[in-house]
Design brief:
Blueprint (H helix, E strand, L loop, with lengths): L5 E5 L6 E2 L6 H12 L12 H11 L4 E2 L3 H9 L3 E10 L3 H11 L7 E5 L5 H12 L3 E4 L2 H7 L5 E4 L12 E2 L2 H12 L1
Parallel strand pairs: 1-4, 1-6, 4-5, 6-7, 7-8
Antiparallel strand pairs: 2-3
Length: 187
Protein backbone atom coordinates (compact mmCIF):
# COMPACT_ATOMS: atom_id res chain seq x y z
CA UNK A 1 0.00 0.00 0.00
CA UNK A 2 1.35 3.44 -0.99
CA UNK A 3 2.03 5.82 1.91
CA UNK A 4 -0.16 8.90 1.89
CA UNK A 5 1.60 12.26 1.45
CA UNK A 6 1.39 14.49 4.52
CA UNK A 7 -0.80 17.55 3.93
CA UNK A 8 0.65 20.60 5.71
CA UNK A 9 -0.58 24.17 5.87
CA UNK A 10 1.60 27.13 6.75
CA UNK A 11 0.63 30.58 7.97
CA UNK A 12 2.58 33.41 6.34
CA UNK A 13 3.50 36.21 8.77
CA UNK A 14 5.49 34.86 11.70
CA UNK A 15 5.85 31.41 10.11
CA UNK A 16 7.13 31.59 6.52
CA UNK A 17 8.07 35.25 6.96
CA UNK A 18 10.07 36.43 9.94
CA UNK A 19 8.22 39.22 11.71
CA UNK A 20 9.95 40.74 14.77
CA UNK A 21 6.81 42.70 15.75
CA UNK A 22 5.07 39.45 16.63
CA UNK A 23 6.67 39.72 20.06
CA UNK A 24 4.01 42.32 20.97
CA UNK A 25 1.24 39.75 20.42
CA UNK A 26 1.01 38.82 24.12
CA UNK A 27 0.71 42.49 25.05
CA UNK A 28 -2.09 42.97 22.53
CA UNK A 29 -3.81 39.81 23.81
CA UNK A 30 -3.69 41.07 27.41
CA UNK A 31 -4.99 44.50 26.37
CA UNK A 32 -7.87 42.85 24.50
CA UNK A 33 -8.81 40.85 27.59
CA UNK A 34 -8.65 43.91 29.85
CA UNK A 35 -10.43 46.42 27.64
CA UNK A 36 -12.66 44.51 25.24
CA UNK A 37 -13.78 41.82 27.71
CA UNK A 38 -15.30 39.57 25.07
CA UNK A 39 -15.51 35.90 25.92
CA UNK A 40 -15.24 34.83 22.29
CA UNK A 41 -12.16 35.20 20.12
CA UNK A 42 -12.35 38.35 18.01
CA UNK A 43 -9.82 40.14 15.81
CA UNK A 44 -10.20 43.77 14.88
CA UNK A 45 -10.74 44.39 11.16
CA UNK A 46 -9.82 47.88 9.94
CA UNK A 47 -12.71 49.64 8.22
CA UNK A 48 -11.54 53.11 7.19
CA UNK A 49 -8.86 53.85 4.59
CA UNK A 50 -6.74 55.43 7.32
CA UNK A 51 -6.93 52.27 9.48
CA UNK A 52 -6.13 50.10 6.47
CA UNK A 53 -3.04 52.19 5.72
CA UNK A 54 -1.82 51.69 9.29
CA UNK A 55 -2.47 47.94 8.98
CA UNK A 56 -0.50 47.87 5.72
CA UNK A 57 2.36 49.62 7.49
CA UNK A 58 2.35 47.03 10.32
CA UNK A 59 2.46 44.20 7.79
CA UNK A 60 5.66 45.70 6.38
CA UNK A 61 7.25 44.41 9.59
CA UNK A 62 7.49 40.98 7.96
CA UNK A 63 11.05 41.68 6.91
CA UNK A 64 12.54 38.51 5.47
CA UNK A 65 11.84 34.92 4.55
CA UNK A 66 12.19 32.63 7.55
CA UNK A 67 15.04 30.14 7.38
CA UNK A 68 13.57 26.78 6.40
CA UNK A 69 11.53 27.68 3.32
CA UNK A 70 14.00 25.90 1.03
CA UNK A 71 13.64 22.74 3.15
CA UNK A 72 9.86 22.92 2.67
CA UNK A 73 10.34 23.30 -1.08
CA UNK A 74 12.60 20.24 -1.08
CA UNK A 75 10.04 18.17 0.86
CA UNK A 76 7.42 19.19 -1.71
CA UNK A 77 9.75 18.41 -4.61
CA UNK A 78 10.53 14.99 -3.08
CA UNK A 79 6.76 14.37 -2.76
CA UNK A 80 7.05 13.99 1.02
CA UNK A 81 4.47 16.70 1.75
CA UNK A 82 1.73 18.55 -0.06
CA UNK A 83 1.92 22.12 1.24
CA UNK A 84 -0.43 25.09 1.34
CA UNK A 85 -0.11 28.69 2.44
CA UNK A 86 -3.09 29.92 4.41
CA UNK A 87 -2.80 33.52 5.52
CA UNK A 88 -5.49 35.55 7.25
CA UNK A 89 -4.23 38.75 5.61
CA UNK A 90 -7.23 40.86 4.70
CA UNK A 91 -8.21 41.63 1.09
CA UNK A 92 -6.59 45.08 0.99
CA UNK A 93 -3.21 43.46 1.72
CA UNK A 94 -3.31 41.43 -1.51
CA UNK A 95 -0.63 43.46 -3.31
CA UNK A 96 1.87 43.06 -0.48
CA UNK A 97 1.03 39.36 -0.32
CA UNK A 98 1.71 38.95 -4.04
CA UNK A 99 5.04 40.76 -3.70
CA UNK A 100 6.09 38.32 -0.97
CA UNK A 101 4.93 35.29 -2.94
CA UNK A 102 7.07 36.44 -5.88
CA UNK A 103 10.10 37.00 -3.61
CA UNK A 104 9.60 33.57 -2.04
CA UNK A 105 9.20 31.86 -5.43
CA UNK A 106 6.58 29.47 -4.05
CA UNK A 107 3.90 29.29 -6.73
CA UNK A 108 5.36 26.24 -8.47
CA UNK A 109 5.84 24.38 -5.18
CA UNK A 110 2.77 24.95 -3.01
CA UNK A 111 -0.46 23.17 -3.96
CA UNK A 112 -2.52 26.20 -3.00
CA UNK A 113 -2.15 29.71 -1.63
CA UNK A 114 -5.15 31.12 0.18
CA UNK A 115 -5.67 34.54 1.72
CA UNK A 116 -8.59 36.08 3.55
CA UNK A 117 -10.12 37.80 0.52
CA UNK A 118 -13.57 38.12 2.14
CA UNK A 119 -12.14 39.67 5.33
CA UNK A 120 -13.46 36.95 7.64
CA UNK A 121 -12.34 36.63 11.23
CA UNK A 122 -8.82 35.14 10.89
CA UNK A 123 -9.41 32.11 13.11
CA UNK A 124 -12.67 31.25 11.33
CA UNK A 125 -11.06 31.64 7.90
CA UNK A 126 -8.20 29.33 8.88
CA UNK A 127 -10.60 26.81 10.43
CA UNK A 128 -12.63 26.71 7.22
CA UNK A 129 -9.54 26.28 5.04
CA UNK A 130 -7.98 23.56 7.21
CA UNK A 131 -11.25 21.62 6.99
CA UNK A 132 -11.64 22.22 3.28
CA UNK A 133 -8.08 21.11 2.49
CA UNK A 134 -8.20 18.22 4.96
CA UNK A 135 -4.81 19.14 6.40
CA UNK A 136 -2.87 16.79 8.65
CA UNK A 137 -0.91 19.66 10.25
CA UNK A 138 -1.19 23.44 10.28
CA UNK A 139 1.73 25.65 11.39
CA UNK A 140 0.67 28.88 13.13
CA UNK A 141 2.35 31.53 15.28
CA UNK A 142 -0.62 33.29 16.89
CA UNK A 143 -1.38 31.68 20.26
CA UNK A 144 -5.03 32.79 20.24
CA UNK A 145 -5.55 31.07 16.89
CA UNK A 146 -3.57 28.01 18.03
CA UNK A 147 -5.75 27.75 21.14
CA UNK A 148 -8.91 28.03 19.06
CA UNK A 149 -7.89 25.50 16.41
CA UNK A 150 -6.00 22.93 18.50
CA UNK A 151 -9.12 21.19 19.82
CA UNK A 152 -10.13 20.41 16.23
CA UNK A 153 -6.87 19.99 14.32
CA UNK A 154 -3.19 19.13 14.69
CA UNK A 155 -1.52 22.53 15.09
CA UNK A 156 2.20 23.20 15.38
CA UNK A 157 2.84 26.47 17.17
CA UNK A 158 5.85 28.71 16.54
CA UNK A 159 6.01 30.69 19.76
CA UNK A 160 7.64 34.00 20.51
CA UNK A 161 9.94 34.83 23.40
CA UNK A 162 7.17 36.19 25.66
CA UNK A 163 4.95 33.14 25.14
CA UNK A 164 7.66 30.51 25.49
CA UNK A 165 6.62 29.48 29.02
CA UNK A 166 3.06 28.79 27.92
CA UNK A 167 2.49 25.03 27.90
CA UNK A 168 1.65 23.54 24.53
CA UNK A 169 2.77 20.10 23.41
CA UNK A 170 3.72 20.92 19.79
CA UNK A 171 5.52 24.25 20.18
CA UNK A 172 8.68 25.30 18.39
CA UNK A 173 10.97 28.35 18.50
CA UNK A 174 11.23 28.72 14.70
CA UNK A 175 10.34 27.28 11.31
CA UNK A 176 13.46 25.11 11.03
CA UNK A 177 12.67 23.22 14.24
CA UNK A 178 9.06 22.84 13.10
CA UNK A 179 10.24 21.31 9.82
CA UNK A 180 12.40 18.88 11.76
CA UNK A 181 9.26 17.66 13.55
CA UNK A 182 7.34 17.45 10.26
CA UNK A 183 10.13 15.28 8.85
CA UNK A 184 9.72 12.92 11.81
CA UNK A 185 6.06 12.48 10.80
CA UNK A 186 6.96 11.38 7.28
CA UNK A 187 9.74 8.91 8.07
Amino acid sequence: MKKQILRVGFDLDGVLLYNPLRIVRPIVAIAKKLFIKKKILYFYSPQTNWEKQIWKFFHKSSIFIAPGLNEIKQLIKDKKIKAYIITARYSYLKNDLEEWLNKMKVNKYFSGIYYNQNDEQPHLFKERMIKKLNLDIFVEDNLDIVSYLSSKFKIYWIYNIFDKNHFYLDKFPNLKSTIKKIKENIL
